TrEMBL record:
This is Glucose/sorbosone dehydrogenase-like protein. SUPFAM superfamilies: 3-carboxy-cis,cis-mucoante lactonizing enzyme. The lineage of its organism: Bacteria, Bacillati, Actinomycetota, Actinomycetes, Mycobacteriales. Residues 34-79 are annotated as: Disordered. Residues 101-229 form the Glucose/Sorbosone dehydrogenase domain. InterPro entries: 6-blade_b-propeller_TolB-like, Glc/Sorbosone_DH. Keywords: Signal. It holds the Pfam family GSDH. Residues 1-24 form the signal peptide. Gene3D superfamilies: TolB, C-terminal domain (2.120.10.30). The keyword Ligase does not apply.
């Protein structure tokens, strides 16, 4: 997606976040109401994305206007941290062009939370999910025309399947695409808008590698759908994905799309090409890749199992060379990092998954969202 489109969407989110509706999460999931909903927002022709200038993120600081920082059990002294005391996280998205405000999914509770440093957290949407295993509220995207329709799209796990749903500002939830296989593991996937009429969906293999290679199954695939029509037909772009599948689109106008996943041969970083996946790097020791983000000159891959982020030199168009990664150890700071999202091509927001990975937080105020400035690795060419 072009950088100006992403910047426009994020700038508009900042303006409209004050009017987003806070919804209370329910304790027991009942998906029958979803499937029987008759009218939860009509399908209409989507307006064109607007454009806005992009604001470059600045290094994190703790300038609070001269006043003392607040105190309490959920205050992290790290100035890069913008959300604390979260349940285990799923997707994360900037809520303003600078990234100082964030939307983050709590995978196990089904809540999408708006947060900024030292600010109150507010639930802006909620959906019933099955949060067992690695399922739940897996990922989400604001509508490309969120300022107009306030719609949120999400990839979620129910009691019977994984599915793409649309959450209206009233809180009603409409299934868009159902029947994505669900498993005890291998549910983690990703969604990303390429245009107002193209939502790219990446799914895990649901614990069944054979299904990932079967074009008749939606497990372990990258495909696109038009979310504005009833019963959209998936256009499959890649097969054979494993678990912990994370899309990382380019912030520039080149339209490059990368993906990280843990497959049968190990963890890997790939470029999504016109004929499937083109492998850029592999981790045969399977350290646990869990997310990725792409900047102007780098690709950062979070490795939750090893509690680090590996950053590569981003390849030029037509090249598959990323060099040797530059590893950043987070074992004593953020711990296990899950999903990430790029900020203006220079920085990224990251969400920790310490509660899911080890069952215990690295810090008392886990799980968290923070701003991180990646540094690329070594060029081997």
């Amino acid at each position: 997606m072009p950088s100006h489109s992403r910047a426009a969407r994020r700038a508009l989110l900042a303006v409209t976040s004050a009017i987003a509706v806070a919804l209370a999460a329910t304790g027991c999931a009942d998906f029958s109401q979803e499937d029987q909903a008759a009218d939860q927002g009509s399908f209409t022709a989507p307006p064109t994305m607007e454009r806005a200038p992009q604001q470059a993120p600045q290094p994190p600081s703790d300038d609070q206007g001269g006043g003392p920082p607040p105190t309490g059990p959920c205050v992290d002294p790290d100035p890069a941290v913008i959300a604390t005391c979260l349940a285990s996280t799923g997707g994360v998205r900037p809520a303003d062009p600078s990234g100082r405000t964030t939307y983050v999914a709590e995978r196990t509770t089904g809540k999408i939370i708006l947060s900024k440093r030292y600010g109150p957290q507010r639930v802006v949407a909620s959906v019933d999910v099955d949060g067992s295993g690695d399922g739940g509220l897996i990922d989400f995207e604001m509508s490309p025309t969120y300022v107009e329709d306030q719609m949120i799209y999400a990839l979620v796990t129910t009691g019977s399947d994984n599915r793409v749903v649309r959450i209206a500002p009233t809180g009603s939830v409409k299934p868009i695409l159902t029947g994505i296989p669900k498993g005890a593991t291998g549910n983690m996937g990703s969604i990303s808008f390429a245009s107002p009429t193209e939502l790219v969906v990446a799914t895990g293999d649901a614990g069944d590698p054979a299904a990932a290679s079967d074009r008749g199954s939606l497990a372990g695939k990258i495909f696109s759908i038009d979310p504005n029509v009833a019963d959209p037909k998936p256009d499959i772009r890649a097969t054979g994905l494993g678990s912990d599948v994370a899309l990382c689109p380019s912030p520039g106008a080149d339209g490059q799309l990368f993906v990280a996943d843990s497959g049968a041969a190990g963890d890997r970083l790939s470029l999504v090409g016109p004929k499937g996946l083109q492998t850029l790097w592999t981790w045969p020791d399977r350290p646990g890749v869990s997310g990725c983000a792409v900047g102007d000159s780098w690709i950062a891959v979070s490795v939750a199992g090893a509690k680090r982020i590996d950053t590569f030199i981003r390849p030029a168009n037509g090249s598959l060379t990323v060099g040797r990664p530059n590893p950043q150890d987070f074992s004593k700071t953020y711990g296990a990092v899950g999903r990430m999202t790029a900020l203006g091509g220079q920085a990224t927001q990251l969400a920790t998954v310490n509660k899911a990975t080890s069952g215990a937080p690295v810090k008392s105020y886990d799980d968290r969202v923070a701003i991180y400035m990646p540094k690329a690795g070594e060029d081997l060419t």
